[in-house]
Amino acid sequence: MIWLNRYAKLVAAATALLIAAGGMVTSTGSGLSVPDWPNTYGWFMFSFPMSKWVGGIRYEHTHRLIASTVGFLTIILAFWTWRVEPRAWVRRLGFAALGAVILQGLLGGLTVLLLLPPAISIGHAALAQLFFCITLTLAVVTSPSWKALSTPANDVMLRRMTLITTVLIYCQILVGATMRHVGAGLAIPTFPLAFGHVVPPVWTSGIAVHFAHRVGALIVVSAVLAVAAHVWHWHRRRPEFTRPALLLVLFVCSQATLGAFVVMSSLQPIINTAHVVNGALVLGTSLVLTLRVYRHGIQEPAIGGIPAAARAKLPVLEKHLRGVRG
Amino acid sequence: MQMNGLRLFLAVSVVAVCLGCQGQQEPASSAPPANAKRVDESKAGNVVGRVVFEGTPPVNPPIDLAADPYCAGQNPGGAKLENVVVATGGLENVFVYVKDGLGDYGFDVPAESVKLDQVGCQYRPHVLGVRVGQKLVIANSDETLHNVHAMGKANGEWNKGQALKNMSDAKVFKAREVMVAFKCDVHNWMRAYVGVMEHPYFAVTHDGGTFELKNLPAGTYTIEAWHEKLGTQTQSVTLGEKESKQVSFTFKAPAASSN
After folding, report:
1. From CA A315, how far away is CA A302, in angstroms rounded?
2. Which of A49, A227, B158, B212 holds its CA 20 to 30 A away from the CA of A194?
3. Neighbours of B84 (CB within 10 A)
4. pLDDT per residue as tens digits for the range A51-83
């Protein structure tokens, strides 16, 4: 099981890398540099000569190769989980990841063939984050710490706060994806003010979605700070809560800073991509905190008459006994 | 649930296959309507003129050719964008055309094709005109890959890869459009603009901003000059039989350079 957990972490990390590669495709405007799909300029994707990886093709083709790798890793993850995982909902989650990655591949192909229609491109970006959340969830729930005994949180307020914050972050990412794919990243070209005003003096659809993303940022930062303050006040001695809460504050502060630099650098591709990836990390960290806060509400099945919590301690007990016998 | 998933997969597959057929276009009819008036060239006149640039031309930014070693090799001295090209005070790459006033005249579509080439990682020519129904051949003379991405509105958008030297694609536009922008997403500096006209009265300025519209029948016309960065200007011209008229457009330097 420990290897399954390590493998799930590897898939989640590969997914973060894939999101970065996708971010570079959009940020460099390379989404249509390879006009065909699933082939690459008529070549089978994996035999496309490296000498032809030039200009925008470098970003798009690399994205496709990483996506294929993540798809392959996800197939293994789904079947491995199905084979060794005793919890039915985790097994189902493994196959949900597989379904998501297949759908994601189809959306990626469709958006190329349909010449990047915003609805499909936004759907592709939105599903990428959901898929990242699924792989991260698999990594969390297969970890030894998930199964280990700990004091239940019993904090209804914290449950609500973390869940709402995670949903808010996801919605904010959707608005950001909409802004990117309708080309509204510089609809408000000044920061922090909008054309010298707190509220834009003129409105277009691009300005509206851009401004919504800025307002969303304020809401998300406020929600994250409120969660962190709550954790510090009530659960200071719970590192499984304080660590992700601290990380969440760091990521969200970095995210706001990167967002400002994205505008001030006129959408410099690397800064833009860092903003996308860091956004995924904000979402992922919030999700990890939420899962940990909620985990005591999830009933782990007893196997062989041994409760899950006690089962998690068996390796420790065995090691101890070996030490006593040895 | 399994059937629903299968249906969804099949639906997506059918859409993808249909999209693969999208690039094929039916040629537009090349014959004008039977009741269309014909131009009597013995009585036709000409409009000649010049597009002048007033002020200091903005500096065209250099292109970062490092993205493709082949392109860098083809431009050893570097290359610049062709946002505003001024020679001896005249503005080049301006598409000048009769926007209005031709009434019921009809015109045969030329049988010969127009060529848009990709040479040295640039579209050549940068601005050109083609007739509705006339074949436009887009060729790749480079030993690198290009994708030809046309972003028409009335004529639709399409994207086609040309992976090898001497590959070409032929397209026929079905509707008048000023202008259809072309780009290459592999080399994001590459741009071309194609004016699609239902008549032959168009020209692209060259040689210091000069242009000529030949064999225009007598009448009053709206002439428009289009530039990719500086916008459009129009003038009204009344032309008598066998008359030749001079027309001049003046574009000014933008207040704040935005290139």
Report:
1. 16
2. A227
3. 22
4. 999 999 999 999 999 999 999 999 999 999 999
The beta-strand segments (E) located in chain B are 45-54, 86-87, 90-91, 95-100, 114-119, 122-124, 127-131, 135-140, 146-151, 157-162, 168-172, 177-183, 191-197, 202-204, 210-216, 219-227, 231-239, 244-252
- A 107-126 residues inside an 8 A Cβ radius of B: 109-110, 113-115
Band of pLDDT at residue A150, cut at 50, 70 and 90: low
Quote the ipTM score: 0.81
Q: Tens of pLDDT along B147-195?
A: 999 999 999 999 999 999 999 999 999 999 999 999 999 999 999 999 9
pLDDT at res. A147: 79
Closest partner residue to B68 (CB to CB) among A32, A36, A55 is A55
Tens digits of residue pLDDT in A276-295: 999 999 999 999 999 999 98
pTM: 0.85
For residue A180, give the H/E element and its range: helix A156-181
Q: CATH assignment of A150-300, given 1.10.10, 1.20.950, 2.40.10, 1.20.120?
A: 1.20.120
- The DSSP-derived string for A201-260 is SS--HHHHHHHHHHHHHHHHHHHHHHHHHHHHHH-TT-HHHHHHHHHHHHHHHHHHHHHH
N-terminal to C-terminal alpha carbon distance within chain B: 54
| E strand intervals along chain A | none
Strands B191-197 and B157-162: unpaired
What is d(CA A99, CA A131) in angstroms, rounded to the nearest whole number?
9
Selection from B125, B119, B100 nearest residue B222 by Cα = B100
- Omega within 30 of 0 (cis) for the link into A117: no
Pairs across A and B, CB distance < 8 A: 69
Shortest CA distance from B160: residue in chain A: A35
Q: Is there a contact between A35 and B20 if contact means CB atoms under 8 Å apart?
A: no
CA distance A303 to A311: 8
Residue B17's pLDDT is 46
Contact indicator for A114, A120 with CB cutoff of 8 Å: yes
Domain residue ranges in chain A: 1-148, 150-300
Interface test with A, best of B65, B140, B147 (most A CBs within 10 A): B147
Task: Report which of B157, B155, B108 is spatially closest to residue B134, judged by C-alpha positions.
Answer: B108
- Structure confidence by residue, pLDDT tens digits, B92-145: 999 999 999 999 999 999 999 999 999 999 999 999 999 999 999 999 999 999
User: Where do the DSSP E strands lie in B23-77?
Assistant: 45-54
Contact A114 B19 (CB under 8 A): yes
Say if residues B181 and B196 touch (Cβ distance below 8 Å).
no
Least confident of A258-272, A298-312, B184-198: A298-312
Render B130-147 in DSSP notation, one character per residue: EETT-EEEEEE-SSS-EE
The average pLDDT across B231-239 equals 97
Cα–Cα distances in angstroms (integers) from residue B135 to residues A158, B29, B196, B204, in the given order: 67, 12, 11, 18
Nearest-neighbour CA in chain B from A36: distance (Å) = 7
Instruction: pLDDT band for A99, please (50, 70, 90 cuts).
Output: very high
